[in-house]
Specification:
The complex is a heterodimer. By secondary structure, chain A is mostly beta strands. Chain A has two domains: 154 residues, TolB, N-terminal domain (Rossmann fold, 3-Layer(aba) Sandwich); 264 residues, 6 Propeller (Neuraminidase). Chain A contains four helices and 31 strands. In chain A, the strands form seven sheets. In chain A, strands 2, 3, 4, 5, 6 and 7 form a six-stranded mixed beta sheet that branches. In chain A, strands 1-30-29-28-27 form a five-stranded antiparallel beta sheet, with no helix packed on it. Chain A is globular, with a radius of gyration of 23 Å. The longest helix of chain B has 21 residues. Chain B contains seven helices and four strands; from the N terminus they run H-H-H-H-E-H-E-H-E-H-E. In chain B, helix 1 runs antiparallel to helix 5 and helix 5 crosses helix 6. Chain B has a four-stranded mixed beta sheet with strand order 1-4-2-3. The chains are: A mainly beta, B alpha+beta. At the A-B interface, loops of A face helix 6 and strand 3 of B.
Chain lengths: 433, 175
């Protein structure tokens, strides 16, 4: 694809740090966002105004990706709402490389049709056109889905605009704190509190089908692991043994959890818990702290943190059991492993000269790339496209969320309407349509 | 029964005070045990022996007043500090005197590093105190542990002093 190639060329042409003109996005390193245009969508329906601004969602999505710089509406020489009306000369003149036009048509009381087209300005051709149904309630989802399709066509990378993020917040309240487990759209919109407690909530983890979250709750001053179904709000306790019950993470088939159990003597070890039978299988036996287990996407290995060699380092063991092997050697502190969904990269919390930062190791080359710049960053989680990570960083006293591209070039803060101290973000799998 | 616990704790204390402060490890309980030769005797000791160790009052005396319910730890350490070992021993005595009382040891870590790993560090601290209590005769059934890691700070700043306050074990009596 020409635009993708162009991005590559631009990266080569601008070896100096460039700051994007766009608010809220801090482009670091050498990436230069590609200028594009998303023309305000046309509207055909009963009401004078469109019930939902689809073009704005697409514009914001592309902007937030950091790879595109949608131009302002005032700069557009024409505002076609149908693919047939586009004039490549005009768009080439304003310097954009791709144009999105579209319209929303009302087809029933609460039924709409969304049509849009994507054009390559240099190539002077339509890349694709698409139409999809929507209701008032699903218009935002439809718009994100349109943005995903556009993004993938232009970059070759699957978009994550239709995904969700779960995170925990803590707010001071009297003597104690109020802890909330929140699920929002990937951009922080539509945040919804699925669980609230005066006792800590920790370690949310998505099921592979995005329908459930596992988490740790300290209700009644003991730790327990719960699995909660998002749609119904129903939850069931899956582990509440004496001592520590922590760090749940779903197996790729969604049937098991890897968990940390401590027992009365407090020896933290990695166990696999069958969600249906509640039967547990112990995978590690070291006297050290073994915790933060996570499955490799192929289900063969469980990566975990262990301080058996002194400080915390990342190890892996076969999911069926065996002798653990050490994975990280660089630096004195490597913890909280998370694998990219494509299985190629390992994200971790890495102590970088006294600062706790997010680093990614390429599992083939074994090289470590430090991606974040804070002093106390934590909890890296890959987007389902393996191209972006979300993590928590500090802004003053409070935790806030940040995303960074896996190459470290694009970093941005995520606004959270929730407020308080925000921590432990986890990115959902791709939605299923 | 009660006097046995007292004796045990006092003997352990005496050992501690006798210069164990330089040694980071919990004192080995064996020597105190051998003081009372007959194996069954320990549990059924009569009041006499207890009286003869009445000097234990002296340890309860210090101006400390109310028994502290929080002890603090050094960075990356789960060792009970020498100056806090007296506090742990007094809790051991209290628990020994009241076999029906129950204590929950809540371990905590400072905010640096990974959250679940910090749960492990907090648990290590709670377990270090638990072991100390058990060595001094407290029954395992009287003790439970929980680690809150960095999730329940008492100091909300990010200075070394804040961190030092947050690295702690709290004694919570539940009965």
């Amino acid at each position: 694809m020409t635009v993708r190639k162009l991005i590559g060329i631009l990266v080569l042409l601008f070896p100096v740090a460039v700051t994007a003109q766009v608010l809220d996005i801090e482009v670091t390193g050498i990436a230069q966002p590609t200028p594009v245009a998303v023309v305000p969508f046309g509207w055909e329906g009963e009401t004078p105004d469109m019930p939902f601004d689809v073009a704005k969602v697409i514009t914001d999505d592309l902007k937030r990706s950091g790879r595109f710089a949608p131009i302002a509406e005032e700069k557009m020489l024409q505002k076609p709402t149908d693919g047939a009306d586009i004039d490549f000369q005009d768009w080439s003149f304003v310097g954009v490389e791709a144009v999105v036009v579209g319209k929303v048509t009302q087809t029933g009381a609460n039924a709409y049709e969304l049509r849009f087209w994507l054009f390559d300005v240099f190539g002077r051709k339509q890349l694709f056109g698409y139409r999809m149904p929507a209701s008032r309630g699903t218009m935002r989802i439809a718009a994100h889905r349109a943005a995903d399709m556009i993004y993938e066509k232009l970059t070759g990378i699957k978009g994550v605009f239709g995904t969700k993020v779960a995170y925990v917040t803590a707010k001071r309240q009297g003597e104690g704190q109020l802890y909330s487990l929140i699920v929002s759209d990937y951009d922080g919109e539509n945040d919804y509190t699925i669980m609230e407690s005066n006792d800590p909530i920790m370690s949310p983890a998505w099921s592979p089908d995005s329908r459930q979250l596992a988490y740790v709750s300290f209700e009644d001053n003991k730790s327990s692991i719960f699995v909660q179904t998002l749609r119904t709000g129903n939850r069931f306790q899956v582990s509440s043994k004496p001592g520590i019950n922590g760090a749940p993470s779903f197996s790729p088939d969604g049937r098991k959890l890897v968990v940390t159990l401590g027992g009365v003597d407090g020896n933290l070890d990695i166990h696999v818990l069958d969600i249906n039978t509640r039967r547990t299988t112990r995978l590690t036996t070291s006297r050290s702290i073994d915790t933060e287990g996570t499955w490799s996407p192929d289900g063969r290995y469980i990566y975990f943190t262990s301080d058996r060699s002194g400080g915390p380092q990342i190890y892996r063991v076969r999911a069926t059991g065996g002798t653990p092997e050490r994975v990280t050697y660089e630096g004195s502190y490597n913890a909280r492993p998370r694998l990219s969904p494509d299985g190629k990269k390992l994200a971790m919390l890495h102590n970088d000269r006294g600062n706790y930062r997010i680093a990614v190791m390429n599992l083939d080359r074994k090289d470590l790339l430090v991606l974040s710049t804070g002093r106390q960053d934590e909890s890296p989680s890959f987007a389902p496209n393996s191209d972006i990570l979300i993590y928590a960083t500090r802004q003053g006293r409070d935790g806030v969320l940040e995303t960074v591209s896996a190459d470290g070039l694009i970093r941005q803060k995520m606004a959270s309407g929730a407020g308080g101290d925000v921590r432990e973000p986890v990115w959902s799998p791709f939605p299923r349509f | 029964m009660m006097s046995y616990f007292k004796l045990f704790a006092l003997a352990a204390l005496a050992l501690l005070l006798a210069g164990c402060s330089s040694s980071p490890n919990v004192p080995d309980p064996e020597p105190t045990d051998t003081t009372y030769g007959d194996e069954m005797g320990g549990a059924s000791t009569d009041g006499m022996d207890g009286e003869s160790y009445g000097g234990g009052e002296y340890l309860d005396d210090p101006s400390a007043g109310e028994l502290a319910t929080v002890i603090h730890f050094d960075f990356d350490s789960s060792e009970v500090r020498a100056e806090d070992q007296d506090i742990v021993s007094r809790h051991a005595m209290q628990l020994g005197d009241n076999p029906n009382s129950r204590v929950r040891l809540e371990g905590h870590a400072d905010e640096r590093g990974s959250r679940e790993y910090n749960i492990g560090l907090g648990e290590r601290r709670a377990q270090a105190v638990r072991q100390m209590l058990m060595i001094q005769g407290v029954s395992a059934a009287q003790i439970s542990t929980v680690s809150f890691g960095e999730e329940r700070p008492v100091a909300f700043g990010s200075s070394e002093e804040d961190y030092a306050q947050n690295r702690r074990v709290e004694f919570k009596y539940t009965n």
